[in-house]
User: Fold this.
Amino acid sequence: MLNTIFPKIHKEGYKFLAISVLITFVALFLSKLLGLIFIIISVWVYYFFRDPERFSINDDSYLVSPADGLVTDVSERSGPEELRLENTSFTRVSIFMNVFNCHVNRVPNTCKVEEIYYKPGKFLNASLDKASEENERNFFKVKSMKDNEEIIIVQIAGLIARRIVCEVEQGQSLKQGDRIGMIRFGSRVDIYFKNKKVLAKIGQNVVAGESLIASD
Assistant:
């Protein structure tokens, strides 16, 4: 119960929380109302950077969600040209994370990281489709340990986000639901896959590492 109310926070959040708490103490000396506002902001900063434990299905017949948030698109798309996959057809599921969602991202299956590619870009609203082509983003190409299928995960910075954090390295082996990084302050994650039945629905709220996105 205590871990639910006070979840651990991601290491990226320590600096922001310390700054927010310091400003809150100063604000309280100046005005109770101003101090109350910054107390609320500090609580929000704490919960934005929360990094709760998640419990995956541990079955690589399924892909679990790489992000918390709202499924905004399920469609057939060409793969990212940044990974030389523009001539390959994939199913793409897009998950939009608002500023109240947990922003820690996770790998959808047991896999090996084949390639990581970071691309600078703009900071359009991440819910817009063109954000997947113009915004700052980080690409992961992973290969399933189960069937050698390639799966692409793309972290896309949003309107407020200004930094994508990557926590894994090329060549690293990961278990289903392992953390791969986070995006600060509102963003989106796309997952591309082939030869699987889509389980996610547009408008569905999903949980990283737990919600089922697709199956064999």
About this structure: The mean pLDDT is 87. The longest helix spans residues 13-30. DSSP finds four helices and 14 strands in the chain.
